[in-house]
Amino acid sequence: MAASIVVTGAATLAACSGGSGGAGGSGGSGDGSITLWTHNGGNDAELAIDEQIVADFNASQDEYTVELQSFPQASYNDAVVAAASAKKLPCIVDIDAPNVPNWAWAGYLAPLDLPEGTFDGQLESTVGTVDGQVYTYGHYDVALAMYSKRSVLESVGARIPTMDEPWTEQELDDVLADLKATGQFPYPLDLGTGGTGEWLPYAYSPFLQSFGGDLVDRETYTSAEGVLNGPEAVAWGEWMQHLVDDGYMSARSGSDATADFVNGQSAILYSGSWANPTVTEAFGDDAVVLPPPDLGEGPKIGGGSWQWGMTSGCSDPAAAQAYLEFALQSDYVVELADTLGVIPATDEAAAAMPDYAEGGKAAVFRDMAKDFALVRPVTPAYPFISSTFQKAVSDILSGGDVQQILDQAAADIDNDIRQNDDYAF
Questions:
Q1: Using CA atoms, how far apart are residues 108 and 380, in angstroms rounded to an integer?
Q2: Is 12 helix (H, G, I), strand (E, B) or coil?
Q3: Cα-trace Rg, the chain
Q4: Which superkingdom does the taxonomy of this entry point to (predicted)?
Q5: Is residue 3 over pLDDT 80?
């Protein structure tokens, strides 16, 4: 599931396209037959469920027919951008949640007009709302968390943090110091610093936000000045450097942080709910899931995964809307969550799954997604913000001057926003 948070260069192309109305296309023949595109080519388990939903919809009525076309994830965004340029988009597309505002601004997507109450009981992070209108929805989400072994934490007298009482910054620091002093681990903490791309803002902007900073001013979305380079943001960057300088984590961890944790290379792993099956299988009842620390403004995690939307040039919006309403049935949400090991988007689906129902062994992940998740900035500028933040994180972990790095990042983002004064819907 970590792969679902990769942003390709195509998203940046969309950010540079400017204006609306460029999507065009038809996505259908006008006779009730429409096309659906998905990024799940090569992801056999999820693609099989997509295919089943399409087959079930086609068999459920005789007015509309949906045809599915799949693409490998690595080439999917490129295909969408190329189709938009040629005015040949399909009627239905899936889209990584942080790209929804950009695609809506670029004119690729149309707001959904589904029945009132459709999204009642749905995780907020799984509904793509832009400028007060719903453009997309998802069947699932994932949640960031920390993992450890109860026996390891108890061996150094560490308190096991809870949702209601997460570790503070000082508590986490004390635990890391005690774990390092044991000499058992090359690094007591693994934050996945070997990751690249969208992992960096997805994983580390929540820590920035917990300090009280952010990627951009969410009141106006017109500037990063003061929020990405203010005192709180600088404190975040210095904290990240402190973790490296004091030997608590590597500036560039291994390529598989979960495997390194299971193999005893670290005592605390920062990863997503997708790591839970591996960790649980390795350590059984000794495995413990920890909430992210409260660094001053409460625990935060990233929110938003792949979602479904309708394109603005769809020749048969009624067919697309009918399919999208049909596809949100609880049975499909349950099947996707169960098969993929992800968090069900709806309360109804969660209640039907023992692991995610109240008291279930995976319910903590849905609780964190509900209570701690913050979607990435809802602005067409996000692809540029993301790439700028990625560079800033790399420079900070390499030991650069935090204030200078963040000043430059904020200035670059503000300059991009000024140059694209049509970042509006």
A1: 12
A2: helix
A3: 22
A4: Bacteria
A5: no
Q: How far apart are CA 212 and CA 235, in angstroms?
A: 9
pLDDT for 138-168, tens place per residue?
Answer: 999 999 999 999 999 999 999 999 999 999 9
Element (DSSP H or E) covering residue 21: none
HSE-up of residue 333 (Cα within 13 Å, Cβ side): 30
Question: Count of H helices and E strands in the chain?
Answer: 16, 15
Q: Which amino acid is at 182?
A: T
Listed in sequence order, the residues at least 6 apart from 173 whose beta carbon sits closer than 8 Å to its beta carbon are none
Question: What are the start-end ranges of the H helices in 263-371?
Answer: 276-283, 317-327, 330-340, 347-351, 363-371
Round to whole Å and give the CA distance between 206 and 192.
Answer: 14
User: Beta strands of 115-166 (E only): which ranges?
Assistant: 127-130, 133-137, 140-141, 144-149
pLDDT interval class at 31 (50, 70, 90): confident
What letter would DSSP give residue 285? Answer: G
**pLDDT tens-digit series, residues 290-333:** 999 999 999 999 999 999 999 999 999 999 999 999 999 999 99
Domains recognised in the chain with CATH numbers: 33-138+305-375 (3.40.190.10), 144-301+379-423 (3.40.190.10)
Count of alpha carbons within 13 Å of 376, Cβ hemisphere only? 29
**Residue 134 backbone dihedrals phi, psi, to 5 degrees:** -85, 120
